[in-house]
Write a structure and sequence with these properties.
The chain is built from 15 helices and twelve strands. The protein is α/β, with parallel strands linked by helices. The chain folds into two domains: 112 residues, ATPase, nucleotide binding domain (Nucleotidyltransferase, domain 5); 183 residues, 2-Layer Sandwich (Nucleotidyltransferase, domain 5). The strands form two sheets. The chain has a six-stranded mixed β-sheet with strand order 3-2-1-4-6-5, with helices on both faces. The protein starts with a strand and ends with a helix. Bound molecules: adenosine-5'-diphosphate (ADP). Adenosine-5'-diphosphate binds next to helix 10 and helix 12.
């Protein structure tokens, strides 16, 4: 099956062409300012003949979408209704969908939702402790994101350990520009660090992650900031960028190695938050087979991996410095042989996972 995968994000449009699950072509249109234009340009970059389907990454699927879904007018309308829950993400995903449906009207189009993998969260994890009626009326719940990546990486981790995913408990740490942690029990997401939006949880490139909600009220009342300005502060001017001026972990590491105090603080705040989530998810899972790092920072930044897991020997978690610092690229173990808990690095491949889920859906429905 020939599948085009489209990941229409805020600053870039990623695309990939897959034949029977294998990547055959792909690209990234970077620093996009006009998405419609970028998508039209994309049409010249690949050969659409014989295309069986287009798989779209859609960030927010709300409570309704728990599986990949064939797009028709009704589904597009339902995804549009979710825009208030994901105002920074769903509109761009919808633009991609709209354009591809116009350009390729005879090709089935499938939405694969970032939230879907987390629909197995139990009420204790999915519920925020606020007035339950206010929450229900307004769709306030923990939805979780990066689901495609957590699903793929936890499954690959089980394979790396020679285990059936149904028997493996894994803590997955997706550390990219956005970052989230997930506790996976037997292949199912049971807890995750992002919530109503991708702002909650870990410290990210430009996002704050967890803060006391009172910070928002304080900035509004005492600094005279409007909600749009606060939203911009927490999404674009916080995280690593807010702490030291750089959102790229490579720069943070370089400056820290040169003795830059701000970069060192940014690194420490970033890593400490991940450690806290590892501890919390260990307690939730009870038994952990592996902790797995993925995405740009997780796959490449050995100092981050070492700092995150330092001091967890009593939990059976140890990182072997030589394995950790080796320049390997693929799926690998970085814990000493025979460790109680395996520590793994698994490169994520969200586009491949979207292609697989898209072709699985078509096979089931045809
Ligand atoms: P996205 O969330 O946009 O998919 P990625 O998973 O590609 O992002 O992660 C991008 C981030 O990964 C960069 O901003 C950078 O901080 C980090 N990164 C990439 N390569 C390295 C590296 N060699 N060392 C440390 N950090 C890296």
């Amino acid at each position: 099956m020939k599948i085009l995968v489209l990941n229409c994000g805020s600053a870039s449009v990623k695309w990939g062409l897959f034949a029977d699950g294998v990547s055959v072509d792909g690209g990234l249109i970077d620093r996009v300012t006009n998405h419609a234009q970028a998508l039209r340009e994309l049409m010249f970059e690949f050969d659409p003949s014989g295309l069986d389907a287009v798989g779209h990454r859609v960030v927010h699927g709300g409570l309704r979408f728990t599986t990949p879904t064939l797009l028709d007018d009704h589904v597009v309308e339902a995804v549009t209704k979710l825009v208030p829950l994901a105002p920074l993400h769903n509109p761009l995903n919808l633009l991609g969908i709209q354009l591809m449906r116009q350009q390729l009207p005879d090709v089935p189009q499938v939405a694969v939702f970032d939230t879907a993998f987390h629909r197995t969260l139990g009420p204790a994890q999915a519920t925020y402790a606020i007035d339950i009626e206010v929450a229900q009326e307004n769709g306030i719940a923990r939805y979780g994101f990066h689901g495609t990546s957590h699903a793929y990486v936890s499954r690959r981790t089980a394979a790396l350990l020679g285990k059936d995913p149904a028997d493996a408990n894994v803590i997955t740490l997706h550390l990219g520009n956005g970052a989230s942690a997930c506790a996976v029990r037997g292949g199912l997401s049971v807890a995750t660090s992002m919530g109503l939006s991708p702002l909650e949880g870990l410290v990210m490139g430009t996002r704050s992650g967890d803060i006391d909600p009172a910070v928002v009220f304080h900035l509004h009342r005492h600094a005279g900031m409007g909600f749009d300005a606060i939203e911009d502060l927490l999404n674009q001017r916080s995280g690593l960028k807010g702490l030291c001026g750089d959102n790229d972990m490579r720069e943070v590491l370089r400056r820290r190695a040169e003795g830059d105090e701000r970069a060192a603080l940014a690194f420490d705040v970033y890593c400490a938050r991940v450690t806290e989530y590892v501890g919390a998810y260990y307690a939730l899972l009870g038994r952990v087979d592996a902790v797995t790092f993925t995405a740009g920072v997780g796959e490449n930044a050995a100092p981050v991996r070492a700092a995150v897991l330092a001091g967890l020997e009593r939990m059976g978690i140890t990182v072997d410095p030589a394995h950790n610092e080796a320049s390997d690229r693929g799926e690998r173990l970085i814990s000493p042989d025979g460790s109680e808990v395996a520590v793994c690095v698994v490169p994520t491949d969200e586009e491949c996972e979207i292609a697989t889920q898209t072709s699985d859906l078509l096979t089931r429905t045809q």
